[in-house]
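tool=predict chain=A
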Amino acid sequence: MISNGGYMRGEDEYLTYIIEGKQTRFVIPVYQRNYDWKIEQCERLFDDLQSVATTGMGEHFFGSIVSKREGDTRVVIDGQQRITTVFILLAALVAQLRSPESDVTSVEASKADYIEGQFLVDTYHPDEQKLRLKLVKGDMGAFSAVVAGGVNLVEGSNVTRNYRYFLKRIADMPITGDQLFDAVKRLKVVDVKLDEHDDAQRVFESLNSTGLDLTEADKIRNFILMDLDEREQERCYEEHWIPIERNTLGQVSDFVRYYLAAKMGKTPAVGRVYQSYVDYARRTYSSAQSGRLDTLAMLGDLRGFSERYGRCVSPDRDRSELDGVLYRLGLLQMGVIIPFVLNLLASIDSGGISEGQAVECLEAVESYLFRRWSCGIPANSLNKVFETLHGDAMRGVADGATYPEAMRYSLLHKSGTGRFPSDSEFRASLATRDFYRIGNRKLYLYDRLENGDSKERVDVVGGLREGRFSVEHIMPQTLNASWRKSLGDRCEEVHDEWKDRIANLTLTAYNSEYSNRDFATKRDMENGFSDSVFRMNRWVGEQEAWGEGELESRQSVLQDRFVELWPPISSSYQPTLEVPDEATLGDDAEFTGRDIVSYSFMGDDTPVKTWKEMEVGVLRSLCDLDLGRLYTISEESSFPGSAFEHEERQGFSKVSDGLFVKSSNSTWLKVELLRKVFDLLGVSQDELVIKMVQVDRAEGDAD
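tool=predict ok
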């Protein structure tokens, strides 16, 4: 007998006894994965059975089976791989005993019929499905063919593959069919049967607590479907879960992570997507009366957002102007925007905004992202920007603004590493940035430079991917004698300065072996600059030579083109009440010169009036987390320990018994103190989210 927290009860039992001669059928619920045992596991099982047969062992432990009875079925919560493999092995044994070409023998002429009737097929079961094991839909056809004697086997299935393996092993084994069957009968399991009041989901979580085998999406699917009866499980699986998998291209765990970021304004850690979804679902979908979850509402919302996710990550560029922008953003490789885009598409579906307004928003986002990338601004603040951008916009809408105006206002009021680069900063980036070593972002950059918003498009993306086009240095990467001569005495200096800048790069359709030819040859050859299919080469093809003067001129032309394609944004919205800006403690944000509105530490939002209130409140929360370590920090003579005292003194605030902190007059020092303490305690700075508004007064003691 085993138990786990009072709700699991199990007893040792032979596996064949559980199956034999009863009406009970094992059902693998649809939320379980497909059968995935490989030859390696089957080989180990067969070796063990052969050893049991030849050594005369009384029994062989074969793990546990956890199931819950529903009528005359036992729904398998854990152990489906082992159960399914034994059924496949028995089907292979029956096939070999019946085969006139097989040397596998039994002293009983009817042994094959006995095994089939007692363990594989229930002839008298009223259901059309006579098999004693019902697998998930993807495996059931293959299993039916196996039990039918190997007729019309389903290729590509693990069921079929392992069946063929067992057929061969049985044919070649040094023991009789009776000995193998007797060995199977000695497989002993711990049979754990849950009562109807047992929490199957909690049992499942405890059995899979390591998370090694199941994805976050697997666990979420099980959480949603597990407590439904078999018919409802299958209906929900077919009508909702399969479309979710299809819409997300099978990347359900990634999708749910973005979904939660869109819903909660915070992206869960990769390994906590399941738990974060469970917490969200219980807050959002629990009945106030019964406490039960509204399964259809959960699945309906996930399915709706999965359709938006599919449109976001795999848009049809020619479907609409909106999809064209989504396609470009995909080329830019900025998955960080997905939570915002999900909410934007949901707003279209609900009638809150038009597709035209959504295009306005995404074009502003495109300028924001590309300008920042071009200027080399770190991307560490972008998660928070796009987790909260929809909420910022909706607050503006509530204040009387249009959604695009409020959204642009929010982007324009980001500071530090969240800022929107100005025209001057953007133009300057073209004079310094290496635009050659940019990986697959070249697909986005050159598609945009060549095509812009033109209806007549060159397939730049396809050409680059297929190798028909290439990014070319006009002045080559390595100078030869003719290029040295044409560039003059400063050839090395000019080459080092300009080689990988955008002014010296373009698209070509000619063979790269010509890349070191002199400029006139590259200009006048077939598919050269003056004969190019690319609009962006027209100006280059009109030049008589290529040197520093031409590079400077082209840089100026391209600077204007960049500002045209990725324009600045503006907003006429002036909030009645200042919309708070959000930043985490770890962001490179501007905290000085601002009034704090509230802070959220590990999810608990706390309104405050001063930065001092925030500092003391957070330190008190840190004391609850690790008081001993904080005491140790306070005993250090260097900062941040020097800010603490163990006795009450004037100007110090109590954070715990025997621990007081002196708050600096400087907001910057308050923030730095918390950053240092967070690092020393091993607490992520992103756990502290601060909301603040801009003020025009000088920073003083009121902080």
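The two ends are 63 Å apart (CA to CA). Residues 1-8, 697-702 have pLDDT under 50 and may be disordered.
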